[in-house]
Design brief:
Layout lengths: L19 H7 L6 E5 L11 H10 L3 E5 L11 H4 L3 E5 L10 E5 L1 H6 L10 E5 L3 E4 L13 H17 L1 H19 L5 E4 L8 E6 L4 H10 L5 E3 L4 H6 L5 E5 L6 H18 L1
Parallel strand pairs: 1-2, 2-3
Antiparallel strand pairs: 3-4, 5-6, 7-8, 8-10, 9-10
Helix pairs in contact: 6-9, 7-9
The structure holds pyridoxal-5'-phosphate.
Pyridoxal-5'-phosphate binds next to loops.
Amino acid sequence: ERLDIVIKVIPCDDDGVLDMAAYRDLLGEKTRLVCVNQVSNALGSINPVAEMATLAHAHDALILVDGAQAVPHQQVDVREIDADFYVFSGHKMYGPTGIGVLYGKEALLEAMPPWQGGGEMIRTVSFENGTLFADLPHKFEAGTPPIAEVIGLGKAIDWLDCTHMALITRWEQQLMHHASERMREVDGLRIIGNSPDKAGAISFVVDGAHAQDIGLLIDQLGVAIRTGHHCAQPVLRRFGVDATCRASFAAYNTPEEIDMFVDALQRVLTMVR
Ligand SMILES: *Cc1c(COP(=O)(O)O)cnc(C)c1O
């Protein structure tokens, strides 16, 4: 609002796949920054971020990729994507809360001023000659950092690296496939987001049962799912719903847990319908 920035939204089709032709049309002379999630937390769609980066760059725009839902599920190479900026959160990848990563291309970060002042981010300070800031990344890391969280996030990344991401990706795809199959048995269940390329989560609604009620009751049966608008109200509105249930998959989940989930869902639905 302060800078009068105009935000344009890339539409998606009924399966939750981004409309790339519309994206191409939206890119113009005034486009400065494209922001997109690599994997949608509301739909599970995997977006073609490398192709989107190429198109953005052809229009002299930068691209910021939100990888919060990508890094726990698949190998990510920021250089292969050619992302100018890439962000992700610690707590989505088995790490601590309150910490995440902002990656940026060095030349861009060099050109940017600090966003905050504090300890450890200056080289020299003088009332006569002004202030020189410290080198990257310190320029952007004012004040005492959350040291315990940094160590915890480092351990989480090490664990993901040692576990071999390809195995996790394959395992989770099997879980997702099994869940999609089993969920077909549930009367009146509609999956929101049917992209052929999906990871991490299945969003769904069930006729005659509110997502919140399903979430509360299934919790009593020992199954934790996420319900609500998933901080993505516009995309839910696009699909004509105000809340969904979302079953998420992690490396530690098992096919038996998927079965438990679907059985519990059936029990819950007999209670609320
Ligand atoms: C969770 C999530 C965020 C927000 O991350 P926090 O660290 O919880 O603030 C942003 N984008 C996506 C795609 C997410 O899944």
